[in-house]
Amino acid sequence: MTAGSFLLRPVRSAEDRRDAAALVAAYGASLGVDLAYQGFAEELAGLPGRYAPPGGEMLLARAGGPGAAPLGCVALRPLGPAGTAEMKRLYVVPAGRGMGLGLALVEAVLGEARRMGYARVVLDTLPFMAEAAALYRRAGFVEIEPYYETPVAGTIFLGRALGA
């Protein structure tokens, strides 16, 4: 799938996995928050892990086609209760910002969630990530009750039902 001047595709090749891992590592480094409470180091070392099909998906955005510079990523994994998936690790490199890539990644991963039969997608975002929270709200997410315990005060939990 293409959008603007970038190509979105599932992470399948060794090159894709390497580039997705670099993006997820950059995401973690950009936060200034220790994500050990989420098992971040183990997640990063085992990508795609729970984001692998058939229950999950990881999408990678490149400038142009295969082999081009990676611009961003997003991931989806199953989450109890049945029919619910969690969106994670949305990240766009600074050079890829301002081109609609964040919204394109969100819409693409929601499409994958629908295709896989999920009825609902949830996510969490940190309180200082106002742009991300605004993006999620533009994509139809609304505040929900926390679905896990977090040590980060003010974490925002959002959810969205998926229509047919």
TrEMBL record:
Q: What is this protein called?
A: GNAT family N-acetyltransferase
Quick check: keyword Transferase in the entry? yes
Span of domain N-acetyltransferase: 9-163
Organism this protein belongs to: Muricoccus nepalensis
Please provide the record's keywords in A-Z order: Transferase
Cross-referenced InterPro entries: Acetyltransferase_Enz, Acyl_CoA_acyltransferase, GNAT_dom
List the GO molecular function terms.
acyltransferase activity, transferring groups other than amino-acyl groups
Q: Which Pfam families match?
A: Acetyltransf_1 (PF00583)
